């Protein structure tokens, strides 16, 4: 499978502040990636470097095998949907779709109109008159109908209700199945998109702390509940990322390779096992209170 993006020891600094610190990873073609982390972690900075909107301080960045800066061969293959996307005040939704048709070589205008109907958007309304949710819907339509080989959504659904977000997820997976391309989702609603993600990358304080296939990551953390002495014995030497005490009872979240024999062993000791969601795992790993997993490549 070909490589679409390759970062090698990429760093971005603003004076004494390092927004992205020595990050290395690669992104393959025709997969859905989650680029996750807290506000200010460095996610958007990385996306801005990938899309040639800012320069790296150090390190190497290749997109489709080339430097993306002032490179139309690369940039014409990228669609970047930002949460704070700005449009000319005089533009109507219809104008945004027509402009997008001129920008993106793979644009499907009929599909864009179909999506506008799905999201119940008034095509003749000016962009400056749209609600936050409607603006997000326009960005989603542009991202999906562009069918760009590399499509990046940065918090694409601010202001959308649960029904509209669900519609976005459904349309994304439907169109991705018909027209595979590389998609990066950066979002805080991790549990909502976790079923879409094939690979997960987590940025914390500018550093890459998780780089793992989503399916493998989902089964790596369990919360054990039981008597303190039994839990302490069973979890000795394991990576503990969260712990709560209730007298002699302990609730401990552990990262490990949880095969069936290990689960049966815990159950035989009277321990209660509960799988940890992807969102809760990332919360534990980025709350500054636990030892972090090493980034897995």
Textual characterization of the structure:
It is built from eleven helices and 13 strands. With 297 residues, it is of the alpha/beta class. The protein folds into two domains: 3-216, P-loop containing nucleotide triphosphate hydrolases (Rossmann fold); 219-286, Alpha-Beta Plaits, CATH 3.30.70. The strands form three sheets. Strands 5-6-7-3-8-9 form a six-stranded mixed beta sheet, with helices on both faces. The protein has a four-stranded antiparallel beta sheet with strand order 11-12-10-13, with helices on both faces. A three-stranded antiparallel beta sheet has the order 2-1-4, covered by helices on one side. Strand 6 (150-154), helix 6 (162-178) and strand 7 (182-186) form a beta-alpha-beta unit. The radius of gyration is 22 Å and the shape is globular. The model is unreliable at 291-297 (pLDDT under 50).
Strand content: 25-35%
Number of domains: 2
Largest sheet, described in full? 6 strands, mixed
- The rounded Rg comes to 22 Å
**CATH H-tier superfamily of the largest domain:** P-loop containing nucleotide triphosphate hydrolases
Biggest sheet: strand arrangement: 5-6-7-3-8-9
CATH structural fold name of the largest domain: Rossmann fold
* Helix content percent band: 25-40%
Order of helices and strands: EEEHEHEHHHEHEHEEHEHEEHEH
Beta strands, count: 13
**What's the total helix number?**
11
**Terminal Cα span:** 16 Å
């Amino acid at each position: 499978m070909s490589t679409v993006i390759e970062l090698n020891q990429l760093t971005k600094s603003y004076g004494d502040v390092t927004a992205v610190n020595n990050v290395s990873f690669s992104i393959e073609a025709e997969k859905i990636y989650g680029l996750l982390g807290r506000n200010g972690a460095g996610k958007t900075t990385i996306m801005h470097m990938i899309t040639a909107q800012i320069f790296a301080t150090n390190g190497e960045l290749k997109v489709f095998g080339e430097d993306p800066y002032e490179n139309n061969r690369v940039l014409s293959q990228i669609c970047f949907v930002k949460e704070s996307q700005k449009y000319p005040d005089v533009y109507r939704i219809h104008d945004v779709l027509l402009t997008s048709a001129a920008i993106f070589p793979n644009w499907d205008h009929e599909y864009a109109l179909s999506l506008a109907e799905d999201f119940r958007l008034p095509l003749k309304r000016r962009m400056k008159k749209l609600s936050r949710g409607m603006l997000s819907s326009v960005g989603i339509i542009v991202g999906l109908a562009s069918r760009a080989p590399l499509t990046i959504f940065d918090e694409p659904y601010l202001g959308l209700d649960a029904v509209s977000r669900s519609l976005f997820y459904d349309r994304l997976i439907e169109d991705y199945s018909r027209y595979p391309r590389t998609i990066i989702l950066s979002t805080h609603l991790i549990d909502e998109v976790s079923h879409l993600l094939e690979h997960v990358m987590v940025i914390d304080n500018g550093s890459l702390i998780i780089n793992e296939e989503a399916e493998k990551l989902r089964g790596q953390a369990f919360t054990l509940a039981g008597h303190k002495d039994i839990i302490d014995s069973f979890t000795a030497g394991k990576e503990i990322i969260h712990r709560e005490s209730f007298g002699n009872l302990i609730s401990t979240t552990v990262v490990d390779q949880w095969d069936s024999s290990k689960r049966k062993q815990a159950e035989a000791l009277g321990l209660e096992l509960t799988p940890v969601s992807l969102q809760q795992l990332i919360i534990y790993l980025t709350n500054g209170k636990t030892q972090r997993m090493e980034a897995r490549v």
